[in-house]
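Read as amino acids, tokens; as here:

___
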Amino acid sequence: MRILLIEDDVETASYVVVGLQEEGHVVTLASNGRTGLVLASTEDFEVLIVDRMLPGLDGLAIVRTLRASRIETPVLFLTTMSGIDDRVAGLNAGGDDYLVKPFAFDELAARVRALGRRHTRVTTVETTLKVADLEMDLVRRAVRRATLPILLQPREFRLLEYLMRHTDQIVTRTMLLENVWDYHFDPRTNIVESHVSRLRTKVDKGFTPELIHTVRGAGYCLRAPS
């Protein structure tokens, strides 16, 4: 199988690469999150092995971006983060399996083989979102409007991505809390309102038409101009 290993620890990476190569697999190594995301988005692999804590872009963000782009390559998280909450977060982000360091190589190899049998990668990959003159590059994590770059914080990027994926649909405050902040309770703050306000300033100020709208009593809507 073709396997992509996204791992920044040199010793662990060497151990895994050599072991998988001895099993007959072709292994590509990425030592940081951004390189790993680009490789996973643009090349064909049967299995991805992803560390949680990575320089550049963490493992959860990588997998969320891949799943949002409809890339369904099976993912095995390989990490020292062993708590139940950590495992749940990994699986909720779109991971298929979770193996905690230190690990036995035989178990890793068996899990990789099992995931390879379930390989269902989608061949048509969505790497950009576009509404009117607003464009989001999911691989480079970049946003432009009318060719001008818009600098967003990570949470703002995730918020805009969610709105763009639900263009012309009303999204409620609860939907945003659950899907952008991973909150399954109401924090009783204005966190949504303040982020939407800042995002609207960055995306709409100085541009025509306005894209982000408040729907009184319901939520928010990113509307494509008719």
In short: Residues 120-124 have pLDDT under 50 and may be disordered. The chain has eight helices and eleven strands.
